[in-house]
Amino acid sequence: MKENAGFRDDFLWGGAVAAHQLEGAWREGGKGVSIADVMTAGSNESKRQITDGVQPGVYYPNHEGIDFYHRYPEDLKLMAEMGFKCFRTSIAWTRIFPNGDETSPNEEGLKFYDQLFDECLKYQIEPVITLSHFEMPYNLVTKYGGWRSRKLIDFFLNYAQTVFERYQNKVKYWMTFNEINNQANYYDPLPLLVDSGLIVQPDENIERTMYQAAHYELVASAKAVKLAHQINDDFKIGSMVAVTPIYPQTSKPADVIKAEKISQARYWFEDVQANGEYPWWLKNYQAKQNWNLDITKEDLEVLAENTVDYLGFSYYKSRCVSANPGEAPQYRYQGIKSFAPNQHLPKTEWGWEIDPEGLRIAMNWLADRYHKPQFIVENGLGAVDQVEPDGKIHDPYRIDYLKAHIEQMKLAVVEDGIDLLGYTPWGCIDLISAGTGEMSKRYGFIYVDRDDVGKGSLKRLRKDSFFWYQQVIKSNGEKLD
Ligand code: P53
């Protein structure tokens, strides 16, 4: 075996975005209404609301995004200037199948992505494409109840087949569902909607519904893996989970077992996608509930036979848990309510723990469990930026965050020998936050002049981190200062 001296020669440095958070043009080119189009703006204090269809007089930040739909040539030019080797974005399902249940696609939508991918390839930037990133057709929610319905598998595969065939000579790296495991937090309506198109009904057993919907998505994902390989042998299809290591708050065994149980509840999705089977604890748990889930023998065969080629994941933070007396033995995951403070870690302005070593921990943990190449497809710091009178943006906090994470990622590669395909920091150009709908929660190397109520010239500016990242890429991760 060759030892890893540094990042691979073909390491995919780049950046990541998602269609609904930057394209805008929500009604252009025949696009249908997506779930992102019915989400209002919010903040850390006030949650984004899901409205009943698009309501007049309400501000929906994703409708205009940062107008990437019209400005992508300018934006890709800037990314090429940074030296991007790849660019992760998603296809808006609603540009291809506006209602999701049509049999033939919308040619204008397909043409848009032809042009976008051609523009990437012009600069030798490899497109890395997510099929479903929080933006399924809203019609599939109202008409079928989202992923509650098995019918969604066929609708999704029809969409997947259309784009795999159309872009087979332009796109090699794909992912099926973005952060499919966010819905493990089924106490919060937002992840249920964005992951699975679920709108909670008053007396519904939402935990059961989540497990059923996630199962259909996992089957759809496995079938997409199969289809992709049939269409083009060279395709690489990844899963995409939000990786947040769960630490015990103390060395008390009850804290340790709780951390393990909560970790299981968040990561079983990856067990299915990468190992091809449901973990034992979950089979046991589901059987005990008498939920009578629709999980067939054929489904289980499809899952076993079509595991992913690589593990795509996001990493922003770690969490920590503390067991309460009387809570044992289930240690149910209760979303945000499960977490306890970690006194050893600083937090971002939005309260996310900053934990670079957690990335190395996560990579080792994933490597031990799944034995597949990894691709860090999101990482970054959401922060408020200030434009100086001379038009400069000094963002040393962002550079510090990314540098510390790249250092740990390098240890995971060089010391621990992990096979890492690439690194695409999130929101390489400022865009609408998924969690809060804000514009002021900025991640970019490129600043975009737009505020939380949709005002601003949309002008693009290079931040200090732009020039820093340029030299990181040029030196293949050697020059971090
Ligand atoms: P925002 C929650 C926790 C971790 C990652 O998030 C998350 C979320 C959902 O908000 O989402 C991913 O914009 C997601 C991106 C998102 C990014 O992380 O809330 O894949 O769409 O924008 C950052 O700060």
List keywords for this structure.
beta-glucosidase activity; 6-phospho-beta-glucosidase; GH_1_N_CS; 12% strand; globular; 481 residues; TIM Barrel; three-stranded mixed β-sheet; Glyco_hydro_1; eight-stranded parallel barrel; single chain
Structural features, described:
With 481 residues, the protein is of the alpha/beta class. It has a single domain, classed as Glycosidases (TIM Barrel). Helix content is 38%, strand content 12%. The protein has helices at 19-22, 68-82, 93-96, 107-122, 138-144, 151-166, 189-196, 206-231, 253-275, 280-289, 297-305, 356-370, 396-414, 464-474; strands at 12-16, 86-90, 126-132, 173-177, 236-243, 246-248, 310-315, 319-321, 339-340, 374-378, 420-423, 446-448, 460-462. The strands form 3 sheets. Strands 1-2-3-4-5-7-10-11 form an 8-stranded parallel barrel, surrounded by 4 helices. The protein has a 3-stranded mixed β-sheet with strand order 6-8-9, covered by helices on one side. The protein has a two-stranded antiparallel ribbon with strand order 12-13. α2 (68-82) packs parallel to α4 and α6 runs parallel beside α8. The longest helix is centred in the middle third of the chain and has 26 residues, at 206-231. It starts with 11 loop residues before the first strand and ends in a 7-residue tail after the last helix. 2-(hydroxymethyl)phenyl 6-O-phosphono-beta-D-glucopyranoside binds at residues 18, 21, 134, 178-179, 242, 314, 316, 378, 382, 426, 433-436, 441. 2-(hydroxymethyl)phenyl 6-O-phosphono-beta-D-glucopyranoside (P53) binds next to loops.
